[in-house]
Amino acid sequence: MLHSHLTTLNAVSLVLSTFEAEGLPCEALLAGSGIRAADLSRADTRITASQEMQVCANAVALRREIGLELGRRMHVSSYGMLGYALLTSATLGDALRLALRYPALLGTLFELSLKVEGDQVWFCADHYHENPQLAVFNAQLCLVSLTVICQDLLGQPLPLLAARFAHSKPDYHASYASTFDCTRTFEAQDNGFAFARHWLDHPLPLADAITHQAMAERCRKQNLEFTGRQSWLTRIRQLLATQLHAAPGLEGLAEQVNCSPRTLRRHLHDAGCSYQGLLDELRFERAKLLLHETEWPIYQIAETLGFSETASFRHAFVRWSGVAPSQFRA
C-alpha cells in the first residue's frame, strides 16, 4: 500500500525536467496522477505520495533505468532543513547517523541502516513494502541518491568497495557502473553499498558546530510536526475512505473526530489540503482500482463512490485524470 502522506512537487518537477530535453509533453508524465500542468506553477501545491509514484510509474514506462538518472540529480540541497544539518555535521558518520534518525524528512520508502562489518561499512536500504512494480526504480533512486549525498557532504566522491541489489540484474546493468564503480551483486538479501570504515570519521569541509546545533533542533521539531500531522491526516483519510458511498461532509467528519468544523478546516489547511481535496483524491484512487480490477459498469462504480449521477462521475474523472473512465479502463 502506497504511503498517503502529503509531499511537495519537487520529485515530480525533477521527473518532468529530466524528460523536457526530449520534448515529451508533461501531460504524458502526469497522466493518471490527478496533477494538472497548472499545479506546477504553484509553490504551495501539495500532492500525495501515490500521485508522485504514478508520475514515476509513467517515467519508468518510458525509460526503465530512469531511477539511476533521477538519483544522480538528488543532491543534499533537495532535503531542505535536513540537508543543512547534514552539511554542517562534524564527520560523515555524524551526518549519516543524523539522517537515519529522520527517515520522514529524508522521504525514503526503505528502512535505512549502517552495518559495520570489520573494516568496512554497509549503508543498507531494506524492508520495501510499496508498489512492487516500482521496487527496482525506488531501489535505484534510493541508493544512487545516497551516494550523491555522501559526495556532497565530503566534497569528493566516496570510494565504494561493493554494491548489492535485491532485484535481478537488468539488461541495462552496465548503466550502474557510472555510480557504482565497484563489485556489483544482484538478487541480494537487501540493497546497499559498502565503503571503508575510516570514512565515518572523515571531517566534513562545511562543518560548523553552532549552525549544526540550530539546524538539528529545527529538524527535531519539524520531524515531530511532520509525523504528528501525518498520523492525524492518516486517521482522517481512513475515516473518509470507509464512507465514500455516503460522504459525511465537513461537519459530519468533524463530529466523528470530536472537533468543530472550523478546527477541522484549519487543520486540513495546515496540512496543505482540504476536505473536498481529500474526498476527490480518495474517490480517484478507488475509481482507478475498480476500473482496473473489476468489470463493474461505470454507473455501479459511480454509485459506489457516492455520485448520484453517472455523468457527474465521468466529469469528475476527466478532471482528475484527463481521460474518461472508459478510456482509462481500456
UniProtKB/TrEMBL annotation:
**A GO-annotated cellular component:** cytosol
Protein name, as recorded:
AraC family transcriptional regulator
Q: Which InterPro entries match?
A: AraC-type_N, Homeodomain-like_sf, HTH_AraC
* Organism in which the protein naturally occurs: Pseudomonas versuta
Q: SUPFAM superfamilies of this UniProt entry?
A: Homeodomain-like
- Which Pfam families does the annotation name? Arabinose_bd, HTH_18
Q: Which UniProt keywords apply?
A: DNA-binding, Transcription, Transcription regulation
Q: What GO annotations for molecular function exist for this entry?
A: DNA-binding transcription factor activity; transcription cis-regulatory region binding
Question: Which ranges carry the HTH araC/xylS-type domain?
Answer: 234-330
